[in-house]
Amino acid sequence: MSHQTIVILDLGGQNNQLAARRVRDLGVYCEVKPFNTPAEEIKSLNPAGIIFTGGSGKTADNTASGIDKNIYLFENIICLYIKQGKGLVMRL
Known about the structure:
By secondary structure, this protein is of the alpha/beta class. The chain contains four helices and four strands. A four-stranded parallel β-sheet has the order 2-1-3-4, sandwiched between helices. Helix 3 (about 55-65) crosses helix 4. It is globular and about 30 Å long. It starts with a strand and ends with a helix.
């Protein structure tokens, strides 16, 4: 039996566990990974989507340079940005 997978990239803050809980409540498997997880590791999970979630603006400023930019080259993967995660894409 196959299942969908969502990867949550933790940019700092407390929202990552809340997001994981909500995704799991919907019956979808998810894994929380640190923001600097290599793109190939994420791709090996074959995710249906990636959620970027983070805390303060300073956190997003500091983590933007540590994110593997190859994540954005994945095809057919939906990205959702929560809190400072949405500001992150502007810094990449």
